[in-house]
Amino acid sequence: MVDTIATAPFDMSQVQRGARNRRTPYYAATQRYGPKGFTVYNHMYFPIRYDSFEAEFDALLSNVTIWDVSVERCLEISGPDGFQFAQLLTPRDLSKCAVGQAKYVLICDSDGGIVNDPVLTRMDENTFWFALASSDALLFARGLKNAYPELDVTIREADVAPLQVQGPKSKDLMRDLLGEGILDLKYYWWRHAEIRGIPVVVTRTGWTSEVGYEIYLLDSSKGGQLWETLMEVGAPYGVRPTGPSDIRRIEGGIFNWGADMTYEHNALEMGLDRLVDLGLTDDACISIAAYRRIRDAGVLRRIVGVELDGEPFPELNNVNWPASTARGGDAVGLVTSAIYSPRLERNIGFCWLPVEHAAEGTGLQVETEWGTRTATVVPMPFVDPEKRIPIS
């Protein structure tokens, strides 16, 4: 008989830290504001929160928040054949993206699998930035270059550091920083600017479904200075640093690459058909032939919104949860992201299901980290389905 040995949970603060995991240009500044935890994202330390998820959610809805997203490393495609190579990566028609404009795009493999879902900014005719979720998309692009040696293209990680300014008072803060003219910047467009002599690119984008901007720092030595400037100018508007608001992004139907989708999923089963231009030729984009086949065959599964009953979830789920159509039945799907929304006063999330079980109103049993819950398939986004808030 083996004796039982009493053990304590491992202290995750003892996880190795070193130069292999990089610090962002804002790292030192964020430390002064008491982050409550970090994760590693694209090999960089990423502060996940400074207060409770609910308090940060309230700040986002009421005032203005800033958060360090320079972990979204920018894959830069440039060179005389930059446009042609960038188009190989994504099934969205880039000829419809003007210089000065940004687009939400998918980077897809030759089978239609989603390698990443960045915001793309077209910096000039042949230069594109892809702000990457945590994945190996940079290596994917460099590997693809080997299949097209005739293309004159440069692939690198741009030395830029995005930072998000989000919430209803973000326009006030940006106006005070840059003048009334910044309020003319249209949704999903960008412009060059200077903030107290610091060169930046400002975009009208964000990962919150709220009004907001992203500031791409062009001089990484100025990270602390830019952060403190935002805190100073934003003080009258209740500015506070936060991590990503999973409550708001799930309310808004924003998917998280690596959690809600991976290279095993494609745009059509995600309901992201608008990001696939089937009129592209097979030689223009490596995934477009696969998308025609997927369209013709029909998708077999969908990601849907679900509401889950019971007590509020204490936090975002840590693992995927199996979902079945009857208590004790075999799992037919997986809940990928789920959290309690204080505004809606219910638990909400995303769930992958076979198409025959994906209709609105379908009942499910979900094995959560906090016991079995009953769930119902509902429409998403859960809030502002026409996306009027971020465009306003």
Describe it.
With 392 residues, this protein is an alpha+beta fold. Among the domains are: 20-70 and 160-249, Probable tRNA modification gtpase trme, domain 1 (Gyrase A, domain 2); 263-378, Aminomethyltransferase beta-barrel domains (Elongation Factor Tu (Ef-tu), domain 3). Helix content is 19%, strand content 29%. The chain has helices at 27-31, 53-62, 82-89, 137-145, 170-178, 223-234, 246-251, 288-297, 388-391, and strands at residues 37-41, 44-49, 65-68, 74-78, 102-104, 107-108, 114-116, 119-124, 127-131, 154-157, 161-166, 190-195, 198-203, 212-217, 240-241, 301-308, 321-324, 333-341, 346-354, 363-368, 371-378. The longest helix has 12 residues, at 223-234. The N and C termini lie far apart (68 Å). The model has no long low-confidence stretch (mean pLDDT 95).
Q: Strand fraction band?
A: 25-35%
Radius of gyration: 22 Å
The tally of beta strands, per DSSP, is: 21
Task: Provide the CATH architecture of the domain at 20-70 and 160-249.
Answer: 2-Layer Sandwich
Question: Within the largest sheet, what's the order of strands?
Answer: 12-13-14-11-3-15
- Mean pLDDT equals 95
